[in-house]
Design goal:
With about 260 residues, the chain is an alpha+beta fold. The chain has six helices and 16 strands.
């Protein structure tokens, strides 16, 4: 065999093999990125299946925060939304690769015509990205005090509107931290999470608050028809009061920061 021909053939073979190997590694890499992206989306976003392949009304599009072109995946569009404090939902089109952010939740929006490729997501944000929420690393607590006076159910709804709940006091560390932070606050009474069955303090998810139960029982704060506040005049200790009374409130949202 001609030496020149042999060398040319060998180089072409090696080049083809390296090209194949690189393409194989690229597929593995992209596959890993896709799987990571799916986990990322599951943590922060929920798809609104009823709106798939539709357009939204003009009113919804009036709440548009911005558009990004050539966005290759849902995860990248989600990342754009997470970087904008008031982004609550987004649209991504897998055909046009257009990403559109909204300042409202489009979960209740009505479809307005057909648009193939459109997908819509509600964002489950890391709560401490929300404007006005405070993160305390020592307690891994994301929270915010509200001065508006509301009854218990209205305060609870306000927290839920922020995808949160009334603040849960589950340790002396949290209690001491709140005493320090709220000492100079203009409000003196705040709703927190908790009710009672007469023998134990019950969290809003139905679990028993062992931390609050013993102290509340010793203080005689076990009225089964009441709800709990913390009161500045009592050293921010919790009290059981009428749920229709008007007080400030403390909201807590999920933290995804490491503890």
């Amino acid at each position: 065999m001609n030496l020149k021909f042999f060398c040319t053939f060998a180089m072409a073979t090696i080049s083809h093999f390296l090209s194949y190997l690189c393409s194989l590694l690229l597929v593995v890499s992209i596959g890993g990125e896709v799987e990571k992206g799916r986990a990322y989306r599951a943590l922060y976003a929920s798809e609104i299946e009823d709106l798939k392949n539709t357009n939204l009304s003009t009113e919804a599009f009036d709440q548009n925060l911005g558009e990004f072109k050539h966005v290759r995946s849902v995860s990248i569009c989600l990342a754009q939304c997470l970087d904008v404090p008031n982004c609550l939902s987004f649209q991504w089109n897998k055909i046009t690769m257009l990403c559109r952010l909204f300042s409202i939740s489009v979960a209740e929006a009505l479809p307005h015509g057909i648009q193939n490729g459109n997908r819509y997501f509600s964002v489950l944000k890391d709560g401490c990205r929300k404007y006005g929420y405070i993160f305390n690393h020592d307690t891994n607590l994301c929270w915010k005090p509200f001065s508006a006076k509301r009854n218990y159910s209205s305060a609870l709804q306000a927290c839920q509107n922020d995808r949160g709940r009334l603040l849960r006091i589950s340790s002396f560390q949290i209690m001491d931290y709140l005493r320090t932070e709220l000492a100079e606050h203009s409000m003196s009474l705040f709703w927190i999470q908790g009710s009672t069955n007469g023998t134990h303090v019950i969290n809003d998810d139905g679990t028993v608050s062992e931390f609050m139960s013993q102290a509340a029982e010793e203080a005689g704060e076990m009225d089964p028809y009441g709800r709990f506040i913390i009161a500045k005049q009592q050293g921010f200790f919790w009290m059981n009061v009428n749920p229709e009374s008007q007080n400030g409130f403390l909201c807590q949202v999920a933290s995804k920061f490491p503890s």
